[in-house]
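#dry-run=false #mode=assembly
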Amino acid sequence: MTKSEIIDILSRKQSHLGSKDVELSIKLLLEMMSETLSEGGRIEIRGFGSFSLHHRTARKGRNPKTGEQVSLAPKCVPHFKPGKELRERVNESRVSYPIQEE
Amino acid sequence: MVTLTKAEMVEQLFEQLGLNKREAKDLVEMFFEEIRTALGKGQHVKLSGFGNFMLRDKTQRPGRNPKTGEEIPVDARRVVTFRPGQKLKQRVEIYAGNATAQ
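#status=ok
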């Protein structure tokens, strides 16, 4: 399932809105989510899950080509923790639906 | 620290796109519901520019009650993981760089 498929489905279900409005809305939602995380904030959607940043400390790494040691700056990575409802629904679907690898 | 919630998303759809509150609330609700539905049917969800929600089947493994030390097997289960996209990772890293510089 992709973003454009979600936009198609929602446009059909919300036919009074028009697909352009649905598309702009979904893009705005994702932009708000990205912006929140890139400013160090959290996202909390009940029944779905929460997004936050996990910190990675500075560490020494190696250039895989030259073997030379380099120091890597500390960084933040986005992390998602699924909510209870999503976790349960996904787990319960294990028996009836195989994972579709396209 | 900022926390983004559904209420704030509804507010922004209203302010920035002029959707009425009812439409905005329905759309936000339906967006997360479509993602849950797809994941609950064995489909990965790929939101370009943001990230991918991926399903994984885990086999049963030996576990322990951390309090009592008693051995209890962890059942086979299906889990959802989030893999942030390149664009989101870069935006978040820039934040981390600024945060440590301050």
